[in-house]
Design brief:
The protein has 293 residues and is α/β, with parallel strands linked by helices. It contains twelve helices and twelve strands. The strands form two sheets. A ten-stranded mixed β-sheet has the order 4-3-2-1-5-6-7-12-10-11, with helices on both faces. A two-stranded antiparallel ribbon has the order 8-9. The longest helix is centred in the last third of the chain and has 16 residues. The two termini are 15 Å apart.
Length: 293
């Protein structure tokens, strides 16, 4: 059983799909959710899924609960209906500091603001952040790390690339690699996850298995709506990260140091760093975890 905390945003559908997946997976004990930026509408969206659909009572944290920016995509509302905003959330950094213990895995599909807030709180409250593992969707492994024949065509030959999540808080993305309380760090690189698409073929597989899990049922509902408008499918970055947290052997990993250069991210081989980045994956094994075979 994987004890996990999920750190998410809602500008893109796959964070919410990943929440549904983690709530419904029989091998996952989801202990808390933190949200960036954490607006009342986002909190209401997450609470509806956690409390109403799945009947769970777990802590929910928000980075900026009073922020009034639009942070929930139209897809969320079209696919699942209107949301009642909620202020029922604690500061995300406090939730992470409380929940992150030696046996916990943090999976994040958002800018690392909540994790950064937790790291800043360590000094002020005397509590140390601890994690068995941090699985972070973001970063880039390219030329020199990924064999040329395994590079996606759109990234072929590139050494660095932009990364939305890591650029959302570059300081934390660099500091997390040095944090002594995090035993293991895994980054799920764009050069792999951008090749994993939820398309009609995968949708049929989910439909055939959706009675196994409430999570798969709600994923099917959301993607049924999505594919009607965008039949080409959806890159599912965060679902790849979540599946790799459950079964790390889905991926081939290289031990590296991540670095930032002119606003882009790259990776250098660094044996002994305790930081790993995905360079390839086993699609059949990924499907086994995703579909709960």
């Amino acid at each position: 059983m994987l004890d996990a905390v999920w750190d998410m945003e809602t500008n893109d559908p796959d964070d919410f799909l990943t929440l549904l997946f983690l709530l419904g997976h029989p091998q996952v004990n989801l202990r808390a959710v933190t949200i960036f930026p954490g607006t009342p509408q986002q909190v209401g969206l997450v609470r509806r899924a956690v409390n109403n659909w799945f009947g769970r009572d777990i802590p929910i944290g928000a980075y900026q609960l009073q922020r009034e920016t639009r942070a929930v995509s139209p897809w969320h509302l079209d696919a699942y209906g209107p949301v009642t905003p909620s202020l029922d959330a604690r500061p995300g950094g406090e939730v992470l500091l409380e929940q992150c213990t030696e046996d916990m895995t943090l999976i994040t599909g958002a800018p690392l603001k909540n994790l950064g807030a937790a790291m800043q709180l360590e000094a002020s409250n005397g509590r140390r952040l601890r994690l068995r593992e941090a699985v972070i969707q973001g970063g880039f492994a390219g030329e020199g790390i990924v064999p040329r024949d395994r590079q996606l065509p759109k990234f072929a030959g590139r050494v660095t690339c932009g990364s939305f999540n890591l650029n959302g808080d570059p300081r934390t993305a660099l500091e997390v690699q040095k944090h002594s309380g995090i035993q293991l760090r895994r980054f799920v690189s764009k050069n792999v996850c951008h090749g994993v698409i939820y398309d009609r073929t995968l949708h049929v597989l989910v439909a055939e298995r959706k009675e196994r899990s409430l999570g798969l049922q709600y994923i099917w509902q959301g993607m049924e709506h999505y594919l009607k408008r965008r039949p080409e499918g959806k890159i599912i970055h965060d679902l790849v990260a979540a599946c790799c947290a459950i079964d790390p052997d889905i991926a081939t990993w290289a031990e590296v140091e991540l670095y930032r250069e002119r606003g882009e991210w790259g990776a250098r081989l660094a044996p002994g760093s305790g930081t790993w980045i995905i360079v390839d994956y086993d699609h059949a094994r990924f499907l086994t975890t995703l579909l709960q075979e």
